[in-house]
Design brief:
The chain is an alpha/beta fold. The strands form 5 sheets. It has a 5-stranded parallel sheet with strand order 7-8-9-6-10, with helices on both faces. A 3-stranded antiparallel sheet has the order 1-2-3, with no helix packed on it. A hairpin with a 2-residue loop joins strand 11 and strand 12. Helix 31 packs parallel to helix 33. The chain is globular and about 120 Å long. The relative contact order is 0.03.
Amino acid sequence: MTDDLRLDLLGPLRGRSGDRRLDLGPTRQQTLLAVLALRSNQVISADELLDLVWSDAPPSTGAKIVPPYIYRLRKLLPDGVLVHTRDGYSLRLAPGALDLDRFEDLVSAAHACRSKDDAAANLSEALGLFSGEPLSGLAGHYLSVQRHRLTERRLKVLAERIELDLERGRYGDLVPELVALVEEDRLREQFAGQLMLAYWRSGRISQALETYTRTRHELIEQLGVEPGPELRSIHERILQNDEPVARPAVRDELPYDGAAFVGRDGVLKQVVDALRAAGPAVVAIDGMAGVGKTALAVRAARQLADVYPDGRLFIDLHGYTPGHEPVSALQALDRLLRTLSVPADRIPADLEERAALWRSELAGRQILVVLDNAPDSAAVRPLLAGGPRCGVLVTSRRQLTGLDATARLALDVLRPEDARDLLAEIVGADRAGSANAAAEVVNQCGYLPLAIRVAGARLRHRPSWTIEHLAKRLDAEDRRLAELSTDSGGVSPAFALSYEHLPPDQQRLFRLLGAMTGQDIEMYAAAALADVDEVEAEDLLEQLVDANLLLQLRPGRFQFHDLLRQYARMLAPEPDAVRRLLDYYLYATAEASAAIFSSRLHPLPEPAPVRLPEFASAADGLEWIDTEGANVLATLRAAESSEHVWRTGLAVASCFFQRGRVYEMDEALQLALRAAAGDAEAESRVLLSIGSLGRYRLGAEASLRTLQEARDRLPADADLALRARLLASIGYSLAKLTPDDEALAVLREALEVARRAGDRSIASRVLAYLGATYGDRREFDEALAAYQDSLELGDSAVQGEVLNGIGECLLELDRVDEAVAALRTARDLGVERGADYSLIYTYAFLGTAYARQRLWSEAIDVGRTSLELALESDSKQSQRNAYLRLAETLLAKGDLAQAHPHFARALELALEEGHEATVERAAVGLDRTSPAA
């Protein structure tokens, strides 16, 4: 790239390097250079260049013809300008190297000017860069299209400059130029209209009317159409001999915007800056009912008097006003034109002609138009100003996606501190009370300005009330909307208007979402609620977002504002919808669990009664649980169907355990147990899960008591698989207390029952428990054999734990390299499945293995990872193991000071649990790392 090179495209192709004019060679070579220049600083492949440059006569050699031409161009251009990359060729030009770029910069500068003289000067300088037909003499379809584009661009800018000259009163000077332009293209109505204005304002009315007659004749003769509305509007004005120059002053129509306006400084600046920007500005503000859109728009408009000195117009389009039909574009234009003192008999009846007259009246003026409370984009489009010095500010409850806005702003509720300030502004600092009480009130108002204003007004007009009393009244959710509404308006009526403007299918989904129990919802849950397919559900959800009745804080996740949720709950529910939502969470949780564990821990009747997401991998199941787990738990809290609750609770608890979310696991199981009351087998199933999943955190003794209670409630005719699972868990808890012959006998019985039931999954788990029990007995050959038998049965749900056990056995048998291989496989499997609990042991054993291999850095890293996961899990058993193994690694490395506190903590946990093997190892470690040692 060099600053010396200049290329001219706005005429015959020319080039200069410094003071030297470049000989650009034959036509085809110039065509290639022009294509590269038009797409400067972009990489273009040889095949694309072939298509763009040789489209009129493709060579038989194909893209092989490109490199020789590139070579010739490189020879004549400065070094480093034309470069070859792996993907193609690029002409690297400095800013301003092309006359086309300088042209556009001057046009932008003109649009930024507030002075008409300066703007006209910039446009004239820009037009002076044209030296003939752009890219003249160069062949090819691509350049032909570009030539036409640049020609049209020149004519558009020329029309802008002429418009400025008309506004500056240079009528006589313009006539010769415009006569030539009209002769050159008799079908271009814009120049004909400008010539008519120049004639008329010069006092040459007959020539103005003759120009119209001739242009109309050409249009009818050649195209078979009448002149457009703007040309007809100019003709009518001339016939009526209206004085076009003397324009009446436009009054400031902005309404009172209130005294209390806080917390919007940032968004206010965004709106003001957008309306100060160069060119015609259209700013759209959307947001839910009561969020303060109108107040923001009016406050912004008041700060822009210097930018729009010819007036600031305001019209309420009544998109959402009780007792009012929305104002049509035709009605709005009538009102706006009358505001500009256009006589009634000059206002056309046709919408298109009325909009054309509106744009003509705004030409040359600097006016801001505030279109408040717009129902949709269609109502706004005809009202947009065409002039570059006018601005339009639109507010709507809907996202006006069909509007070509230069800036958009989605207005949110207030920040908590700003909401408190607004309340204090309304009621006075003395009535606002303590910060905590004010914070409670604005939180109950959902930080919505309208709700805060209503609450503040109630407090202000009731001297006997305190803010604490107001907070107490607002605390009852079933009465909150009533407290925040008045006879003349308030929150509920505002929401009702938004709801009533929805089509029936969106109204129905909005009502049904009132049954939503969680914080947010995705398309499959919404599809279950509405009994539609997921694509239709997503479309409806997006439409409610467009109407600002739902929030979408991240893709695919939809939620209510708190007050809108309460309003939706007031509307008529559908009992079947709640059942469908419960079905969805039950079956989706079960499918997620099956994906995570590669087996169905709690089978359900098939087929599923609702549509479900696809769970193609463990990662899909984990992602769903991470996202939806809180919603599932919220549904369990609110549900009345007991069977749904205990089945869903069982399914989600295992997933929470896998993710180390133990407190949520506990709550899900307690809700499941409460729901199972009276159903002996269901109670037994839930107690089995409580005892099994709680063993690692609450200890084997508490686990055993729960499991024995489960056994006591197990019906005599319960299926063998459930009985085998229960025996296995009892045996394992016995083994964790004392790995004696009694524990082994119970586990062997469980293995026999599992085999009679034909359930390989349970048999695999029992063998894993046997392996762990033999390991605790220090019988590592027997333990390794049991683990390997478990692995052969292929139950992926216990595969990670089994590999951990194999790794531990191999370590004890001093087969370190084999242990590392097994543990790395366990690690990869655990990471894939998000098995945080299993990984605690994997990393702990790997730490020991790496220490044996004297890989100290790796050993300490994985040991610390194990401890971090253990501390997050709240499992004292896993913490004890992690502390002990990390301490032993640090001791082996010789870092006694670091090892000592870890041994101390391991000993403390082992004493609490009565785990003698750990007590002995930790005590030895403490002795070896004490300062005296």
